Amino acid sequence: MTKMNEKKVGIIGLGKYLPEHRLSNKDLEKIVDTTDEWITARTGIKERRIAADNEATSDMAVKAAKNALENAKLNPGDIDLVIVATITPDMFFPATACIVQNKLGINSVPAFDISVACSGFMYGIAIANQFIKTGVYKHVLVIAAEKMSSVTDWTDRSTCVLMGDGAGAAILGEVKDGGILSVYLGADGSKGDLLNMPAGGSRIPATVSTVEGRLHFLKMQGNELFRHAVKIMAEAAMKATEPLGLKGDDISLVIPHQANIRILNAVAKRMGIDPAKKLYLNIEKYGNMSAASSAVALTEAVEEGRVKKGDTILLDAFGAGLTWGAVVIKW
Ligand code: COA
Predict the structure, then answer these.
(1) Residue 137, CB half-sphere, CA atoms under 13 Å: how many?
(2) In this structure, what are the phi and psi dihedrals at residue 270, rounded to the nearest 5 degrees?
(3) Residues of the chain with CATH 3.40.47.10
(4) Is 181-330 a CATH 3.40.47.10 domain?
(5) Which one is catalytic: 67, 71, 98, 257?
(6) CA 259 to centroid of ligand 1, rounded, Å
(7) pLDDT in tens, 277-293
(8) Is the Cβ atom of 38 under 6 angstroms away from ligand 1?
(9) What residues contact 325, with CB distance under 8 A and at least 6 apart?
(10) What is the pTM of this model?
(11) Distance between CA atoms of 276 and 225, rounded to whole angstroms?
(12) Angle (deg, nearest 10), helices 261-271 and 36-43
């Protein structure tokens, strides 16, 4: 919550980029043993976007960032810090944020990546909020960008139907009214094995056998994650809203990380909100884009007029780590 003398911080520009290529459930039927009916009923996903072979995470991130700069009516030179939330960086190092910073032509501002999977946009907002409210920086660019198709095992029907590629971006700055009212973050490293990419890091460096063993793809225990996701996202929503004295009714729209429509409906039920009226969904079009999901969802909710001035919205995300985060914003 904002204290005396602290600046009010809000989102002053939003942008997105989705690759052109659409991969439908019908297309997936030709790749793995699945059906459109199963994917739609079990996940809510109808299609997802897939980046081109020569399109890396930074390429999508830059496009989303330019879109957000245009929306905020700012120039790259107005940005004081670049944060990229991603688990699919262009390469381990340098940071994708440095690659993006260079492509935006702002070569002296600080830039770093955060690796907290699907919660990355929440963590990015939280960091930006701190830097701005204490007067260190004026404008912070938070990009959430993922090329999940690059770590997807296209022979594993239990995961390949879920993921998609894309990028969303937000510019945070000082606002006169409203803005970020509360931020709640959490993590539980004891459950890291539920969703990970085993090889390629210092624990199991890349070898011919790690490639042959398909260890450079994401591995997921879907059932167990599902249970944690429902419980943790509902709890995170409560932890972010309760200190403000807000109940489900006071929230105009919940814009969650889009992992599975059944998870989101169960979270809405626990929060006591009507999903038809107060739950923003675009999972049908994009699947799970990890960190990019909630950034793109917020951008589209605003573009579609679902978020109006004066509305109190809740962003809520959960992902590998485990990590989670929820943010309440008065628009
Ligand atoms: N098409 C058809 N059948 C499939 C399938 C597919 N794409 N994927 C799995 N199945 C099968 C399984 O093999 C299993 O068959 P069996 O009963 O013969 O063994 C059956 O469907 C049920 O599998 P299960 O894993 O229990 O399904 P589910 O209802 O839990 O749905 C997920 C699977 C992955 C959609 C669901 O667990 C989920 O969304 N989990 C959370 C994912 C998540 O949030 N991940 C990221 C965190 S940000």
Answers:
(1) 21
(2) -65, -30
(3) 9-176, 181-330
(4) yes
(5) 257
(6) 12
(7) 999 999 999 999 999 99
(8) yes
(9) 119, 122, 123, 126, 183, 184, 185, 186, 236, 315, 316, 317
(10) 0.96
(11) 24
(12) 20
